Amino acid sequence: MNEKGRARRARPFFPVDKPECNHYYGGSGVMKLDIKQLKYFIGIVEAQSFSEAARNLYVSQPTLSKAMKHLEEELGIQIFYISGKKVQITNYGKQLYFMAQGIVEQHQAIYDAMHGLTSLQKGIIKVGFPPIIGTCVFPRLIKGFVEKYPGLEFVIDQHGANQIQQMVDKNKLDVAFTIMPIISDAFEVVPIVEDLNVLVVNRQHPLARRKAVDYNDLRNDKFVLLGDEYMLYNNIIAGCRDAGFEPRIVVKASQWDFVVQLVKVGIGVSILPRQILEMYPDPDIVQIDLNHRSAHWDVVMISKKDVYLPISVQTFISYIKENAGKPKSICY
């Protein structure tokens, strides 16, 4: 290692005149070492000179000498010896040097990690949402945030709205984007998007020319639906029951694009958010307005009330509140 490299490595992590509060204790509970002593020790070993180490560490030579004397007294061993004009370390000193490097590196890693978290240079945000929201809403919603905070990392879970809400409730997710209604009053709820679910049929379906339908018009149809882990499924079942019938479900699927393909070939009808159909239009698919309260597709952001959230998550929530604005469709 060249002189410049040694000087850079030996430079203390904090100004040397700033009191250190990180200490290492022996089994008796009596203070044995502090981090500053170890930094001084490493600097002397790498410089092989007290005077050069003092220059590299920006302290006086008497300060180093006093610190090393105390270190030897505290450990009860001889660390250094003089060979010619160079300071050499004993076998005890070599072992201490190896261990001290690890301790100082860990100390720096802790400082870097905490500084990164508080300065938003690093951090993880655990977010969940149903796949349709992942396609329609989330990417455009976070674009500006990712550009502003490039060091933050999103860890994503995609499940149905019911499961996503449960994961937030159990603190497995920091934040979720989900569909109303909300299952718990333990959440802070921020409106994001207001839109509609629509009936989806192929062009040969008898209802394809209609502008709007009621659930009663679907009494004799077969249904192709997203599974019961999705809030939409529950809303559709409720709409059919309000009309006095149980839907004939021929397929439950987990992916909206598969549902659309099944509708396209005439296996059944479905009900899906209008946004997804607007994003990926298909000339063989027709969307029809649905006259029912379950037609509302309201996306909200939820987070748990009264729990500690990392600064990265707090910043993300604040960003969404400031930038979501009035609930609206943001897909097209």
Notes on the structure:
With 332 residues, the protein is of the alpha/beta class. It has 3 domains: 35-116, Winged helix-like DNA-binding domain superfamily/Winged helix DNA-binding domain (Arc Repressor Mutant, subunit A, Orthogonal Bundle), CATH 1.10.10.10; 123-193 and 299-323, D-Maltodextrin-Binding Protein, domain 2, CATH 3.40.190; 194-296, D-Maltodextrin-Binding Protein, domain 2 (3-Layer(aba) Sandwich), CATH 3.40.190. Helices cover 42% and strands 25% of the residues. It is built from 12 helices and 14 strands. It has helices spanning 3-10, 35-47, 50-57, 61-75, 91-118, 131-136, 138-148, 161-169, 231-242, 256-264, 274-279, 311-324; strands at 23-25, 31-34, 80-83, 86-89, 123-129, 152-158, 175-179, 187-202, 212-213, 222-226, 248-253, 270-273, 285-290, 296-304. The strands form 4 sheets. Strands 5, 6, 7, 8, 9, 12, 13 and 14 form an 8-stranded mixed beta sheet that branches. Helix 1 runs antiparallel to helix 2. The longest helix has 28 residues, at 91-118. It is rod-shaped, with a radius of gyration of 32 Å. It starts with a helix and ends in an 8-residue tail after the last helix. Residues 1-31 and 326-332 have low confidence and may be disordered.
Essential attributes:
332 residues; alpha/beta; D-Maltodextrin-Binding Protein, domain 2; two-stranded antiparallel sheet; 12 helices; 14 strands; rod-shaped; disordered C terminus
Radius of gyration: 32 Å
DSSP helix fraction: 40-55%
Structural class: alpha/beta
| Name of the top-level CATH class of the largest domain | Alpha Beta
At the fold tier of CATH, the topology name of the largest domain is D-Maltodextrin-Binding Protein, domain 2
Overall mean confidence score, pLDDT: 82
**Overall number of strands:** 14
CATH architecture of the largest domain: 3-Layer(aba) Sandwich
Question: What is the domain total for the residues?
Answer: 3
- Major pleated sheet: 8 strands, mixed
In DSSP terms (H or I, runs of 4 or more residues), the helix count works out at 12
Bulk shape: rod-shaped
Beta strand %:
15-25%
Residue runs with pLDDT of under 50 for 5 or more positions: 1-31, 326-332
What is the first-to-last residue Cα distance?
A: 59 Å
